[in-house]
């Protein structure tokens, strides 16, 4: 097997293992991995709490997100609030019931496992995965990843964030930026 094939095989294996960890975390509360991911996203990024953002970030079609959100609403984990600036639009909010659930849904065990690696290895893995995500977006394999490279504020030629007004070396680029602005909306 070539090195790229070995990397893809390792990523594939990691995805299976991650999915199993997500099932193990979600199942006691009668959630699916997708529902767990939705709750975690809304917990981590409440300012991007719309079905469209969820669909883009999770790489799932909007009807699938809508069904998952309806189930989460029925279970009492999510509520919709009408956006005061646009009555047709809704923001998604976690309920108090969901807030108390979040520590149990954390991937903390994986974070602890990664933290046992030497710092230099952690940085190399992070940067390598970031570059891989950038490449997947560039090649059209994935739509949107909320990376600096796909942001309207980011000047790739200079490696510079116009919003933060500073250069962003690879180690500082974000995997999910709260201020992300799609390139399509750029001037």
Give an overview in words.
17% of the residues are buried. This protein has helices at 3-26, 33-44, 51-58, 62-74, 96-105, 108-115, 119-138, and strands spanning 78-83, 86-94, 154-155, 160-161, 166-167. It has 187 residues and is mainly alpha-helical. A hairpin with a 2-residue loop joins β1 and β2 (86-94). The protein starts with a helix and ends in a 20-residue tail after the last strand.
Topology record:
Layout: H1 3-26, H2 33-44, H3 51-58, H4 62-74, E1 78-83, E2 86-94, H5 96-105, H6 108-115, H7 119-138, E3 154-155, E4 160-161, E5 166-167
List keywords for this structure.
single chain; 187 residues; mainly alpha; Arc Repressor Mutant, subunit A; 2 domains; 3-stranded antiparallel sheet; two-stranded antiparallel sheet; 51% helix; globular
Number of domains: 2
Q: What is the tally of beta strands?
A: 5
Ranges with pLDDT <50 over ≥5 residues? none
Could you give the distance between the termini? 45 Å
Count of DSSP-assigned helices? 7
What is the typical, i.e. mean, pLDDT?
85
If you compute it from the alpha carbons, what radius of gyration comes out, rounded to the nearest whole angstrom? Answer: 18 Å
Helical percentage: 40-55%
**SSE run:** HHHHEEHHHEEE
Oligomeric category: single chain
CATH top-level class of the largest domain: Mainly Alpha
């Amino acid at each position: 097997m070539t090195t790229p094939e070995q990397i893809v095989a390792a990523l594939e294996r990691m995805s299976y293992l991650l999915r199993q960890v997500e099932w193990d975390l979600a199942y006691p509360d009668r959630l699916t991995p997708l529902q767990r991911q939705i709750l975690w996203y809304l917990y981590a990024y409440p300012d991007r709490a719309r079905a469209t953002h969820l669909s883009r970030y999770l790489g799932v079609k909007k009807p699938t997100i809508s069904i998952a959100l309806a189930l989460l609403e029925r279970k009492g984990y999510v509520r919709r609030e009408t956006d005061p600036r646009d009555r047709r639009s809704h923001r998604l909010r976690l309920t108090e019931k969901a807030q108390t659930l979040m520590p149990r849904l954390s991937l903390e065990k994986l974070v602890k496992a990664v933290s046992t690696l030497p710092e230099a290895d952690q940085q190399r893995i992070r940067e390598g995965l970031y570059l891989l995500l950038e490449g997947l977006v560039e090649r059209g394999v994935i739509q949107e990843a909320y990376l600096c490279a796909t942001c309207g504020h980011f000047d790739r030629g200079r490696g510079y964030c116009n919003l933060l007004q500073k250069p962003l070396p690879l180690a500082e680029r974000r995997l999910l930026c709260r201020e992300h602005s799609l390139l399509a909306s750029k001037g």
